[in-house]
Amino acid sequence: MLKFPSDFAWGAATSGPQSEGTFKKKHQNVFDYWYANDPDKFYDGVGPDTASNFFNDYKEDLALMRKAGIKSLRTSIQWSRLIDDFEKCTVNQDAVDFYNNVINAMLENGIEPYMNLCHFDMPVELQHKYGGFESKHVTDLYAGFAEQCFKLFGDRVKNWFTFNEPKVILDGAYLYQFHYPLKVDGPLSVQVAYNINLASAKTIERFRKLYGNDDDKRIGIILNLTPAYSASDSKEDKEAAEFAELWANKMFLDPAILGCYPEKLVEILKRDGVLWDYTQEELDLIAKETIDVLGVNYYHPFRVKAPEVSSKSLQDWMPDIYFDEYEMPGRVMNVDKGWEIFPEALYDIAINVRDNYKNIPWFVSENGMGVSREERFMDENGVVHDDYRINFMKNHLKELHRGIEEGSNCHGYFVWTGIDCWSWMNAYRNRYGLIRDDIHTQIKTIKDSGRWFKETSDNNGFEE
Ligand code: BGP
């Protein structure tokens, strides 16, 4: 049996906007707004209004998740739900009651809460008024919201996260148009990246003012790490991979853990005339307020080759003037999602964190397999027989285990996700859950993967 360390956390991840539904929300986030104005953009026209109905079903949902062996749950508090007035940072009492009830119900079910503060869900008012994280003023408003969360819920929540996947905000909202406001502006994406790192540092500063160095409380960030692999050993391909690694991973990892930006990245951005606007005071804050714990979302690697120079120019600066994506022959694909399946990268991440990032405590904060039309695999009792998902988790856990055996300080595995949830533009096309959600009846049924997860979580390991 492959056994994991005794303090290993077996959990699941979701987010407020993808599970709660918009019930009783006073404000819209960018997705609520985008859907209300352009529903056709969303798969099957399904929006975030009901999601998996967690707002109404949280008690039953949490009990069911516990039955599927989920002993820790990462979700998020929605800024656009909790706060009444964004400038004054006053709270909405219905939302306070809701999140209090959720946290209490988690603890009653023996589920450890891990709370994230931003899962792509900028309040639309702040996006329209200030450009969201394009503005440094919004980084202060964000830290204020975070502080409210610590004060309201910090007596019970020990693990906090400042952001989920900031890189996806850049890709979606500022480069490749899959998040509102659908801008295409490379230089602006560079500034947004900087401002998010700054917002994270400001949030950590508020946290430390409240808790000092209380060992019982930890704050971190969740990054989607996509190790960059070069298509060949040629100098050009390797340079492309080096930039891709800087841009996709180190731009967030380095400030979060080492407190500074990679020199090479700064050099390139400066040379290209797109370096972020910064002050020494801000850099000092980023240097001081580093994280205690890292969450790693891992789905797929990043394979790159040297760019086709002819079609790209410095005039319209985009990060991909430095690389092209590369489709490796023979790669194993999750065809439904279009992502390569490459568990070995999880081992590489483990070793990278061990050797280059102070062997900081970390955990897999998302990993999972999205499959469309899962009713194909459902029996007459509504149980989905999802061996493919069990194999996916096993293969990734084996690689993770190898990294842990070799000294990487990883202490948990959170599957994406517990209950099938709504997803950004994909709505319910790809299902990821250990538990199926029938979106018409809201009946929720544990899949085979949920039974396997329970056994694995109870045994702290599995038979290979
Ligand atoms: C991650 C996000 C999640 C989730 C997941 C699956 O990037 O943090 O919110 O959605 O990807 O992606 P998708 O739902 O688009 O298939």
TrEMBL record:
Record keywords, A-Z: Glycosidase, Hydrolase
InterPro entries for this protein: GH (IPR017853), Glyco_hydro_1 (IPR001360)
Q: Which Pfam families match?
A: Glyco_hydro_1 (PF00232)
Q: Which GO terms describe its cellular component?
A: cytosol
Answer yes or no on keyword Hydrolase. yes
Task: List GO molecular-function terms, semicolon-separated.
Answer: beta-glucosidase activity
**Which GO biological-process labels does this protein carry?**
carbohydrate catabolic process
Cross-referenced PANTHER family, in alphabetical order? 6-PHOSPHO-BETA-GLUCOSIDASE GMUD, GLYCOSYL HYDROLASE
> Which family, according to the similarity comment?
Belongs to the glycosyl hydrolase 1 family.
Q: What is this protein called?
A: Beta glucosidase
Gene name, please?
Answer: bgl
